[in-house]
Amino acid sequence: MSREKDLATLMSQARDAYERGLPVFAAKLKISAWSPVEHGDVALFTESISAVESLGWRLEHWAMAADSGGAACGYPIFRRSTAVIQDRV
Predict the structure, then answer these.
(1) CA-to-CA distance for 72 and 32, rounded, in angstroms?
(2) Fewer Cβ in 10 A, N or C end of the chain?
(3) Distance CA 22, CA 39 (A)
């Protein structure tokens, strides 16, 4: 899957969870083996967290672990934001 499709899927799932009234939303963000991540900004995480928060969630907790194939994955847990969101994406 492409990065754009992954982000669209994540946003669709987050929007659906919000509209169903769920108090939390948990996601899995996988870093590709080809991602040049050593230090500094991890664009995948930055874009994904920003997109989910734009839908009315706020990042509550974060964990990292390797999946069964050894790829690094981030597991963010979001809670409904108490702030009013002006423009939902």
Answers:
(1) 8
(2) N
(3) 34
* 36 touches 55 (CB < 8 A): no
- Mark 5-37 as b/e (b = at least 16 C-beta within 10 Å): ebbeebbeebbebbeeeeeebebebeeeeeeee
**What is the model's pLDDT at position 35?**
60
Q: What is the mean pLDDT of residues 68-84?
A: 86
| Among 43-47, 56-60, 72-76, 78-82, the least confident range | 43-47
The C-alpha atoms of residue 5 and residue 14 are separated, in whole angstroms, by: 14
Give me the DSSP letters along 34-77. T---SSS--HHHHHHHHHHHTTTEEEEEEEEEE-TTS-EEEEEE
